[in-house]
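User: I'll paste a sequence; please echo it back and then give the predicted structure.

Assistant: Echoing your sequence first, then the prediction.
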Amino acid sequence: MKRLERFEDCRNDVIPYIEGVLRDFYDEKMQAFLADESLQVISTHKSHYAFRVLFREPVKSIICIFWAELEEDSEKMQCIINAIGEYFDEDGDIGKKLEPFECCHNDVRPYIPRVLDRLFPEKRQVVQADIDNGSLQIISSHIKKENRYFTVKFSKPVKSIIYINWEELKEKAEEKIIYGIAHEIGHCYARDGESRLLEKEANDWLKRWGNFEDIIEKVEYLAPKGEEEGYTIGYEWAMKNPEELSKYNCFLKLWNDLKRREKDGLEEELIQQAKSDFVRTKSDKTDNEDIEKGIAYGVMKRVREILEEKNIGKGGD
């Protein structure tokens, strides 16, 4: 079913289960599901306090599968059956069209203006406008059922969603809650950024466009710090060793051609290549995954610069 390829935020190992479920539906229902270009199916493979999804095209319906919480094949199949069934249930509580923030728990809502107040006016107006017109939706975990999924339909097209796992986050300190929401907003607007290191770029965006330095230091989320440290190390190594970089050109080409859900495997290959080329003998953090990832992307930053310089030299755009 080639049309399932548009579900870029649904991992490859989930797709066969969706295909299996759809084959058991009447053809009319299956074709209607496949033809709905405003629908996106997303899946999560880790436990999160929060996550975000940025869609290439606006969507009006979302099915989210919490894949990491499902173990048996029978559980996975039943979860998808229930989720797709609710998608077709126009009269159900979950299937109804939702206005902005209607699927955001009342306990979460007071924290949103506190996050926005920390943004500088220029960016605060941008984010507030997206919230007001419904293109940015904040969803919280109270709508997730025991079946480990949720299905929502919005009254207006949505470009980005932020999911807040309130059951987990509500037990945390206040600054952790504020940071959790702010960090996901940072992801939505920083996107890949210059480095393509998503955790680093989200924090950098918050520092650039708001008063978040204090809260970032308090929370001590280590992934952005590790990525930033590794990024500097990798970039400096690449500057000193240009003869080692030609092998990375293929990663850059593949990265630009692959869909989002296909990039995890390529990223792992890239990190392993950087690890084999770059032996860190002066640090006790060799096994730090965030630093290793940062090193790989620091190398790729220099590879992109070299290719851009060559393209300019040939008169390219």
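The longest helix spans residues 289-313. DSSP finds 13 helices and five strands in the chain.
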